[in-house]
Amino acid sequence: MGTVLTRVGLPGLVPLPWTQTFAIFAYAMVSCLVVNDAVKVAMIKWRVLNVVTKKSESQPAGKTGSQPNAKIKPAVKAESRS
């Protein structure tokens, strides 16, 4: 809607040329998408690293939630007497 108004003009105002309209649109895209995403990524890395370090400090060194390298013991067969 705003782009249409800049091309058509408002009563008492002159319409903007295409170059200025494009410059405003490009500035809005950069400021809303690129800068916003960069700030979000930085904040997520900052918060996630703080949470991960706090969790690793609170857990004892020998205990972990899962043991991916745990060995599976073979089942012992019952001896049958004949």
How would you explain this protein's 3D organization?
This protein has 82 residues and is an all-alpha fold. The protein has a domain at 2-58. Helix content is 59%, strand content 0%. It contains two helices and no strands. The chain has helices spanning 2-8, 18-58. The longest helix is centred in the middle third of the chain and has 41 residues, at 18-58. The radius of gyration is 32 Å and the shape is elongated. The termini are far apart. The mean pLDDT is 75.
Structural class computed from helices and strand pairing: mainly alpha
What's the end-to-end separation, in Å? 91 Å
State the share of residues found in helices, binned by percent. Answer: 55-70%
Number of helices: 2
Task: Give me some keywords for this one.
single chain; 82 residues; mainly alpha; 2 helices; 0% strand; elongated
Short synopsis of the structure:
With 82 residues, the chain is mainly α.
Topology diagram in text:
Layout: H1 2-8, H2 18-58
